[in-house]
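Standup notes, protein team

Yesterday: finished cleaning the Pseudomonas nicosulfuronedens set.
Today: Lipid-A-disaccharide synthase structure.
Blockers: none.

Input for Lipid-A-disaccharide synthase:
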Amino acid sequence: MQSTARKLRVALVAGEASGDILGSGLMQALKQRHSDIEFIGVGGPRMEAEGLKSHFPMERLSVMGLFEVLGRLRELLRRRKDLVQMLIAAKPDVFIGIDAPDFTLNIELKLRRAGIRTVHYVSPSVWAWRQKRVLKIKEACDLMLALFPFEARFYEEHAVPVRFVGHPLANTIALEADRAGARERLGLPQDACVVALLPGSRGGEVGKLGALFLDTAQRLLQSRPDLRFVLPCASPDRRLQIEEMLSGRDLPVQLLDGASHEALAACDAVLIASGTATLEALLYKRPMVVAYKVAPMTYRILKRLVKSPYISLPNLLAGRLLVPELIQDAATPETLATTLLPLLDDGSVQTEPFDAIHRALRQDASAQAAEAVLALVEKR
């Protein structure tokens, strides 16, 4: 039900495509609850379609990798300073930083000191490593909007105002996937045994895991010659990268342009890189084996810094070892194939808890986030 209260000015900043999706959903939900809102800040095409006047193109913030950031650092610092000055002058009723914590938390800190209410949407992995960042978050944010319940518990323990809103994907993805429909759309036989290979969406991830996953597929074929494989490619560049790795191999693998959700709906089991995709596999109720590799020096540093006993979201959400995690030297074709094979015959031991987790995350995140933001504004 819409409010006829005074006009609100809401500032939002998103730094990449996933934030643009979250931001547009939140803006829709805010408009449903308040009749007169002006949106300012920085966002992508989805947020602009909902009425955001973007101060500059969101693509200028979409930088991945240490060296890429260093190469653009002067521009990023200049844009952030300019954005803070603009927002302080505009005096929005509330500022919402969406993910991109290295960029948005500093904005939140300066705006809060200037008397503007601040919200951060999507928690950094502060519960896993660099936990002292929670002190900066406490100083910068009036409210943290957390996608997962274990994140909310962490902030409650550190006396940071928090609201668990659930994960938007839990509402987007049906409680029961249409395997037959997905197979028909992908041209896969209904009676085939299908393994999805998801080695990541970034070039570095695919470089470290792509050949490993294809070697594992060849091992699996030795035990199950009837297997079929699907491999979603996140971009044309990733497809070329995979095609080069497939050269000289005789593998029944179907490359897909995007379509990772179709692949998860169609498959019987998944070999997957650690990341958000593991949550998607959980929501599709597919048994999985999680693998990850980084540079040896990076691994040695992270091993000292990371406090969490798990790296994959299914295990973090369950609070126990639910899905196998094979990291660094433990991730070999032999071990991955041996671990995955039993799941092809019966993955129910692993997937039975997935439904309860899905329902717990199915909170209508955009609506919950909008209600929390408006409640914060009304406190003034």
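Follow-up from PR in the comments: The chain has two domains: 8-166+363-378, 179-360.
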